[in-house]
Design goal:
single chain, alpha/beta, three-stranded parallel sheet, 9 strands
Length: about 190
């Protein structure tokens, strides 16, 4: 047996998935992304992506089909989220939304890690091209949340190597939404 998940953030980057997963580009209506999955980690506070309902919105992502035996691994990866059923092309799939205790925008104590943004946008670039990255930026709320530049010492557990062109694209896209990126002092995070 298997289950399918709609990935709208780092799951879009297939380099973060176990090998040989079935992945299909998709879009879903009625949702927007938002930087509102805030929590504490052993390395300090962090903010990740979630989704919020919006009847007028549509977001790109991927449908990833996993073997049932993978559920504990995916549930552990998404431990701050609740699984919700979503009907996509006649099939019931899972979309993960931040659990009530974590569902709030990040702040100075819960910044976004730049390596998480890097990983996510690299996935969108590979799956949807530069136009897909632009759609990601436009359909994601919360660019006011501080972003900490952890590229020198990645804190995001699934950080990926970006080419110079990919880094420039990420930086340009963040500038386009007036994101506040600050350097980590000596690699330290709040």
């Amino acid at each position: 047996m298997s289950f399918s998940v709609f990935g709208y953030g780092s799951l879009v980057n297939i380099a973060t998935l176990p090998p040989y997963q079935a992945v299909q580009r998709a879009s879903v209506k009625g949702w927007r992304r938002a930087w509102r999955a805030s929590s504490a980690t052993p390395l300090g506070g962090v903010c990740a992506l979630s989704v919020v309902e919006d009847p007028d919105a549509e977001i790109d992502g991927v449908v990833v089909t996993f073997d049932d035996a993978t559920w504990p691994t995916i549930a552990a990866r998404e431990h701050r989220y609740d699984p919700l059923d979503l009907v996509h092309e006649g099939e019931t799939i899972t979309i993960w939304r931040a659990s009530a205790g974590f569902d709030h925008f990040g702040d100075a104590a819960h910044p976004i890690h730049l390596t998480y943004v890097d990983c996510t946008l690299q996935g969108f670039l590979k799956e949807f091209g530069e136009a897909g990255v632009a759609r990601f930026m436009a359909t994601t709320d919360g660019w006011h949340v501080p972003i900490i530049d952890d590229r020198a010492t990645p804190r995001y557990p699934r950080a990926q190597q970006l080419s110079n062109d990919e880094r420039k694209l990420v930086d340009r896209m963040l500038n386009g939404v007036d994101a506040r990126v600050r350097k980590a002092e000596d690699g330290a995070l709040p």
